[in-house]
Amino acid sequence: MKFIPRMVSPHLLRASRHFNAVILTGPRRSGKTTLLRKLFPQASYYLLEDPDVISRLRADPRAFIEEIYPPAILDEIQNVPEVFNYVRTLIDRFPNKKGQWLLTGYQEASLMKGVTESMAGRAAIFQLLPLSLRETSKVSLLRGGFPEALARPSSSQIWFRSYVQSYLERDVRAVSSIRDLATFRRFLSLLTSRCGQILNRTDLAAPLGVSVPTISEWLNILEVTSQIILVPPFYENFGKRLIKSPKLYFVDAGLACHFLGIESEKMLKQSPFLGAIFEGFVASEIIKQQVNSGRSKELYYFRDQQGLEVDFLVPTGHRELILLEAKASRTVMPQMAESLHRLAGSIGNYQVKSYLIFNPGREGLSTSALRPGIKAFSVGEFLSHLSSVF
What we know:
- By secondary structure, the chain is of the alpha/beta class.
- It has helices spanning 9-16, 32-39, 51-59, 61-66, 83-93, 108-119, 147-151, 156-175, 181-192, 201-208, 212-224, 253-259, 265-270, 274-292, 338-346, 379-386; strands at residues 21-25, 44-47, 72-75, 101-105, 123-127, 228-231, 247-250, 300-303, 309-317, 320-327, 331-332, 351-358, 363-364, 374-378.
- Among the domains are: 9-127, P-loop containing nucleotide triphosphate hydrolases (Rossmann fold, 3-Layer(aba) Sandwich); 147-228 and 246-281, Arc Repressor Mutant, subunit A, CATH 1.10.10.
- Helix 10 (201-208) packs across helix 11 (212-224).
């Protein structure tokens, strides 16, 4: 598959003109290296996973860094985080030279610690997630958005199996002392079956025979390596008693389908998990649109103890909210928007817009059958509409 332009590109280029360093984080194989090498073709390149490079760096880091002729791409820098201190020294020596250091890594937590301690004020930070639907129409529920899975759809299941093995053996062990990888694999499959649900750590711990603190540690690993999204409840109660735990989704729908054993469109359509996968797909696409626009992630859900629930709330400005219901059905029915109508009616201090998001190819009722003020869009239509906001 040829290179697909990424929406974050203009923000990276702009940042390189104003900051000494640009840091690009995100999950492994999301396209970070390809993007930086495409945007900055004159930059020298150093892979900090190469054993020889790591050995040279640790033996004499100052000499290694000072021999580099910027601009330079330092790829997978989380493997040698002590490099930040030496890069900072060179930045401070030449503060007027912008865009000289282009850094990538897949662990946001360790990278952010290095930025906080060594690169504050010197680096612009961005995140690159798998490809979004707005970047290519090849993104789908079944295949997800990882570039390599989309490039070879007929062998995507082989790619996902290899990705999981690599992720377990390299990334997970890099941030944790996990030894029982078999149990962690079972945890991943169990977790996928809970997508779209309120997170219950005890419910996850019991069938695996592990402690709740262990589940919390494993969830943190998945979150900091950009594999899952934990959507918190909205922070204002609108006069209602709220559920306070987050909802869980996988960042990539294709990976979620892999864990659930869904290998074809027919299996997906017949799966009891279709609704949850579609809901997670919508959540991920909203998050991608936010980070690709250089914005912070802001996605919430609403559920009170009386059972009123709305899938997603998205703040879009001062006292402005978007309410969303994601439905995998291709047929728009009036009752699908009932929770949107009820919640919008109880919000008095926000300007509210309500949308029903569904799979493409709707049939049956016209959107005019929905309650006034509620619009129905396919995912792609909604994302295009949302571009005027983000």
